[in-house]
Amino acid sequence: MSEFATSSFVRAELVPQRQAPVKTTGFVGLVRTRLLNSPTNIILTILGILLLYFTVVPTVKFLLIDAVWTGSSRDACLVGSGGHEVGACWPFVQAKFSQFIYGFYPEPERWRVNLTFGLAALLLLPLLIPPAPAKGLNAGLFFIAFPVVAYFLLHGGGLDSFAVSWIADLLSGLVSSIGAAGRKLAAHGAAAAIAGKTIVWLATMLALLIWPLTALRDLLHASGAPLWADLAATAAIVSLLLFVINGAFRNGWRALMLSLAMFAGIAVVAALLRLDRGGLPIVDTRLWGGLLVTLVVSVTGIVSSMPVGIALALGRRSTIPLIRVFSVGFIEFWRGVPLITVLFFATYMLPLFLPGNFTVDGLVRVLIGIALFAGAYNAEVIRGGLQAIPRGQAEAASALGLSYWKTTGLVVMPQALRHVIPGLVNSFIALFKDTSLVSIVALFDLLGQLRAAFADPVWSTPTTLFTGFAFTGIIYFVFCFGMSRYSLFVEHRLNAHRRS
Q1: Per-residue b/e over 370-393, b at no fewer than 16 CB within 10 Å?
Q2: Count of Cβ atoms closer than 10 Å to residue 239 Cβ
Q3: Is the model's pTM score more than 0.90?
């Protein structure tokens, strides 16, 4: 026992103090662990610093330090009195700012553009904020009601009829065309007489079927206020149909109230815009320009290309050969031609295929071409998301008794879109920047308006060109960076179950 006690060791002095661990957090930790932790990273860090010094410093000096901020002509942006070179000519941007935003839109009517921008922001912001209530109502107002209101605000003009007259005119025109074709066929000999008479008889039967609608149209036009009478008749017919479809007296009252509220809103808008008295003064789309055209083309292309892309992606995966072949051919055709070709075809070739008395506005033709072009690209992105969904998801939904459309809309498509958020936003950003190509077909977007402003000799200086492109570059960067950051926020929010 004593031998064990004497052989045991008990430290008689304190342990020497260890060195503090190397800091691995904060700015100092970042420098130590990421920038200076190896000879290769040290060299790359030095090269990066030199690159920033030779690019960022001259840019900041040109845009801010040596820039000219006040002036009324090019004289303020020439070489300074001391002989030193001046930087950016911001008075040029101030003088042309309204032109960059509105183009050649008449100045007394620019309040309509401002009101359209304000309504868009007012309806879009609640959609982008997740806790905001009434998402369904807000989405309906933004995607359905707002485009119609924006059209009458920006373009102007009025209405002399509503849906009852529109449908009656369409059906009566169709019946007249069928009857004319049958009469021409009947006049080409005995062999075609039977087929022609059959077509004429069919047209007569169709005319009898739509006679109540055409009679109602004539009655509405004979009234003192055809627009309001047509709107009231349309509201009554649509509300009654929705009431019956949703269960009539059992549970159709909610649909009836919503329909009546919607038509009441349409009536209020029509009264405010004076659509029954010619509406606001018409502003031709050839006078539109600047940021207005850029936003109209990009937002319309982004919003309208999504349903086109979803339909094509589902069609390409369809088991029906006709739908699948059509979707594949459509996608491959539009992906195989440049956007410039699409714009040229939509602007100059499409009118050649239309009837002589039928015209489509040049901006509308461009919007249709861009929507179809972007929809083909989005279709492949969405199809990639659909292929990433395990087959068991659809099989489980089918086992629960869900139909194909409910399975696609409630189970498969939400997961697919969540997977392809980066790809879709990448397509949206590319489309927003590609709107500058519309200047080729005589539409002055932001860049086109900038190039037109360069022709003003009052602001012809060596730095005007760089200042203008810097200004437009900042605008494009703000919009694209905003879309990128918001997509990261949405992706992070929707993928909360995958966070580590």
Answers
A1: bbbbbbbbbbbbbbebbeebeeee
A2: 20
A3: no
